[in-house]
Amino acid sequence: MHVVFQAPLEARLWRFARVVFLRMGRPSPSSRLASLAAVVAVAAIAIPAVAGAGILPKPPKAELSTTGNASELLKTVPIGTKQNAKPRVVMSLSPDNLEPIAAGDRLRASGEMQVSTTCVAPGPRCLGRPYQINPTITARIVLADSPDATAPSMPLSQTTTRLCKQQRPNRNHHCTLAIPNLETTIPDPNALPCPPTACYVNLIVTASNKKAKRGNLVVVGADEPDGSVKQDKGRLNVVQAHANVPPPSQSSTTNVITPDLPVTLPDRERKRVVYSLPISAPQKGEVLAFDATFGISINALRYNSFIASRVILADSPTATDSDGIAKPTIPFRGQATESNGFNCTLGQSGYSNPCTVVKAGATRVSRDAVDPTTGLPATLYLNVLVSAKPLLAEKPDPSAHAAVTPSGPGFVVYRYSP
After folding, report:
1. Using one digit for the tens of pLDDT, what is the confidence trace for 108-131?
2. Which of 132, 165, 209, 396 is most buried (most C-beta within 10 Å)?
3. Of 67, 99, 144, nearest in space to 1 by CA
4. Distant-in-sequence, close-in-space partners of 33: CB < 8 Å, separation ≥ 6
5. From the candidate CATH numbers 2.60.120, 3.20.20, 1.10.10, 3.40.50, the one assigned to the domain spanning 248-418
6. Are the C-beta atoms of 177 and 115 separated by less than 8 Å?
7. Confidence (pLDDT) at 268
8. CB neighbours of 181 closer than 8 A, spacing ≥ 6?
9. For 135-176, how does the pLDDT look when each residue is reduced to its tens digit (9 = 90+)?
10. In this predicted model, which residue has the larger pLDDT, 83 or 22?
11. Beta-carbon neighbour count of residue 3 at 10 Å?
């Protein structure tokens, strides 16, 4: 349930007057008081009749529902012999996360997740039965009447498909599946597969190979050496905009900020900004949805590499951490997506060099971004981060770098007004 708290009418009028006054410069104390009183009087006259009851009409705005941190519901997905033989709901948003769906509603869905092949050989790390097959993974988002993978549903996304190679030496091991933002308009809520007040949004995953045997699994997240599973590597998001909500503004870039990725620095120092877009004067209640696509070449490295990526809100277009003003401006300490990644290989695999990275997500502005020094609205930046880590390289050349190139539409941000 979404609860909106309204400030008292008088407080909102005086807040409006203060904004107008700040734009008038610095008049004398007497004229300042007169100006404030005049603005309040004018604003009071302009308030619709409903304000007589002490309540301002809530302006139409988009709402964001996200699974947030620790989104994964399962630790493993079975590998079936057919693509849709063993579907599983890996993430889900319940009806409590959505407003009742009405005619003309626009639902913009996106998601990310990471899977890992496991049990390449018996040992402590092995989950399930050992295998050498290369599973094909699919992921899609649906609107359904329950959190069950076989429930009646309608698609909210296209299906993302990826081969996740198990066999060495060009083993992917870790594989990411990003589902870019796709908007679906609901013409008739009575035609939905669920009651308009009781719909679930599910991210459904399948793993398949025609030679799969019972007990073959992929891990949702990353398998650890001790046999545990590390998760929190993806989210499921839905932006819901009723028919009277204005469409989002759109900005994009294909300008790569940092074209070279070092591989021999410590983990924290390897991160680089690929794309950056300014978000001027973010206001509480705004929703930002985004997609990013770029290429990674490991030709100069001569070895396979783990490519990790994340999207953050930052104070500058080159910042690789969310600090300062940006950190509390959106939920999850400034992290607009989780960090996840895959193994980019020189040889043939599901992620063959040059490899393509896709990011997709959405976030909500939880407070106005104000410069503490000037008191004025601040400009923040959505930054797409990436890092490259060598795999099984005895002596990586410190002068060698992975190369970043733009791909497809680059970085696109959809901004819904508060």
Report:
1. 999 999 999 999 999 999 999 999
2. 165
3. 99
4. none
5. 2.60.120
6. yes
7. 86
8. 108, 109, 110, 289, 290, 291, 360, 362, 414
9. 999 999 999 999 999 999 999 999 999 999 999 999 999 999
10. 83
11. 4
Burial class (CB in 10 A: 0-12, 13-18, 19+), 93: buried
- 254-265 b/e (C-beta count within 10 Å ≥ 16 → b): eebebeebbbbe
Topology at the third CATH level for domain 62-237? Jelly Rolls (2.60.120)
Q: How far apart are CA 142 and CA 239, in angstroms?
A: 14
For β-strands 76-80 and 200-208, DSSP reports them as parallel
Whether the CB-CB separation of 71 and 234 falls below 8 Å is answered with yes
The DSSP code for 352 is: B
Residues making up the chain, counted from first to last = 418
Q: Which residues on adjacent β-strands are paired with residue 418?
A: none
Tokens read off for 318: 């080159």
> If pLDDT is split at 50, 70 and 90, which confidence band does 253 have?
very high
| pLDDT value of position 391 | 84
Instruction: Give the contacts of 317 (CB within 8 A, at least 6 positions apart).
Output: 257, 273, 276, 278, 381, 383
Are 114 and 215 in contact by the 8 Å Cβ rule? The answer is no
Q: What is the DSSP letter of 52?
A: G
Which residues are CB-contacts of 233 (< 8 A; sequence separation ≥ 6)?
72, 112, 113, 114, 221, 222, 338, 339, 340
